[in-house]
């Protein structure tokens, strides 16, 4: 792993991942490694994420309708002993929309 990821690993809440997730896709933003995002298996396949360089998604604020298209640059990935696909990525916002 790269130098940046080596500093992130100790900050990840591995206990939560081990106790709460099985056969999941977990995305960890290297800028905020304590936050764990579970990616819906119906949205994208594990196989595709193993080969991809980027993951693109969106978020919508349900109160005002503002949304953001978000691109994550995939830096590293591995499968843990609970068959979770763990992805370390860097967050990049593509655009906002109202």
List the helices and strands and how they pair.
Blueprint: H1 3-8, H2 14-20, E1 25-29, E2 36-39, H3 46-51, E3 54-60, E4 67-79, E5 85-97
Parallel strand pairs: 1-5
Antiparallel strand pairs: 1-2, 3-4, 4-5
What can you see in these coordinates?
With 98 residues, the chain is an alpha+beta fold. The chain is built from three helices and five strands. The protein has helices at residues 3-8, 14-20, 46-51; strands at 25-29, 36-39, 54-60, 67-79, 85-97. Strands 2-1-5-4-3 form a five-stranded mixed β-sheet. It is globular and about 40 Å long. The model has no long low-confidence stretch (mean pLDDT 86).
Work out the helix count: 3
**Total E-strand runs:** 5
Mean of residue pLDDT values: 86
Q: What's the SSE pattern?
A: HHEEHEEE
Largest sheet: 5 strands, mixed
Q: Nearest-angstrom radius of gyration?
A: 14 Å
Helicity level: 10-25%
CA-CA gap between termini: 38 Å
β-strand percent reads 35-45%
Shape: globular
Low-confidence stretches: none
In spatial order, strands of the major sheet run 2-1-5-4-3
Structural class estimated from helices and strands = alpha+beta
């Amino acid at each position: 792993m790269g130098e940046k990821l080596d500093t992130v690993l100790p900050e990840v809440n591995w206990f939560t991942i081990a106790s709460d997730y099985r056969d999941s896709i977990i995305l960890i933003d290297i800028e905020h490694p304590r936050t764990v995002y579970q990616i819906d298996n119906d949205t994208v396949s594990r196989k595709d994420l193993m080969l991809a360089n980027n993951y693109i998604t969106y978020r919508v604020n349900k109160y005002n309708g503002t949304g953001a298209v978000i691109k994550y640059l995939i830096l590293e990935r591995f499968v843990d002993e609970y068959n979770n696909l763990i992805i370390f990525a860097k967050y990049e916002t593509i655009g906002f929309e109202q």
